[in-house]
Amino acid sequence: MPEKKVSCVKCKFFYVTWDQRFPRGCKAFGFKTKKWPSMEVHTASGQSCLRFEKKN
């Protein structure tokens, strides 16, 4: 089964931070990052983000 590509911008847990070093964040996992949070999740686990929920 192919992995689903996740767009953080469309996720209700994604947010933009004020931290210039880590401009993107994920409220579901509670972290900030330079990359897209879904890329960090994929790097750490080898899977697509399982907490993705589409914004209303």
Name a few traits of the molecule.
56 residues, alpha+beta, Uracil-DNA glycosylase
Description:
- The structure is a single chain.
- The protein is α+β, with helices and mostly antiparallel strands and 56 residues long.
- It has one domain (1-56).
- Helix content is 16%, strand content 16%.
- The protein is built from one helix and three strands.
- It has one helix spanning 37-45; strands at residues 14-16, 24-26, 31-33.
- The protein has a three-stranded antiparallel beta sheet with strand order 1-2-3, with no helix packed on it.
- Strand 2 and strand 3 (31-33) form a beta hairpin.
- The protein is globular.
- The model has no long low-confidence stretch (mean pLDDT 92).
- This is Uracil-DNA glycosylase.
- It comes from Cytobacillus kochii.
Topology:
Blueprint: E1 14-16, E2 24-26, E3 31-33, H1 37-45
Antiparallel strand pairs: 1-2, 2-3
Protein name: Uracil-DNA glycosylase
